[in-house]
Amino acid sequence: YAKTKLQAEQIVDQHVEIGLPAITLRPQGIFGPRDTAIIPRLIRVAKKGFIPVMNDHIKIDLTYVDNVCEAIFCAVNASEEFIGQKYNITNGEPVDQLVTLETLLQRLGYPVKRKIIPMEKAWKIAGAMEWVYRTFSLKGEPLLTRYSVCTLAFTRTLSIEKAIRELHYVPKFSMKDGLERTILWFGRSPS
Which of 41, 58, 70, 147 has CB atoms 3.0–4.6 Å from 97's, for a disulfide? Predict the structure, then answer.
């Protein structure tokens, strides 16, 4: 996942060099109504009855989808001097990952239990699950991947100061508001 994102940025950079007026935005952990990535995966894991925990003191930055739209608007209206620049985009409010996951899932009606799994063991399990899915051409994705292990095991916070300073990006929705809107939408939708 990270490799393909880097490759995409490199292609954009090559085109900026020959005149493409592009600004690169790097939103972290987009969530909100109609999310087809993060929340459905969390629900799928919650239905198994537990959240795998490799480290219970993780801080993460997330980005409510409407704030991504705001960042795009800011980039489209930015001064030409910022063409070719790259900007981290988040809500600017790092949250405790485990508390946020548990709150979200509990509010959606899923019982949540923590299951402590050492990082090394989780990495091996995820690798084995990926191998099985690849080898037997199974549809979908494994319940645990090496990418999800990294996501659950490490703090991921980003500075948005450059986006604030140069693009005048200001998140319009707080984490609390974004989570409430997301819970409301998913609470009405079939999971």
Answer: 58
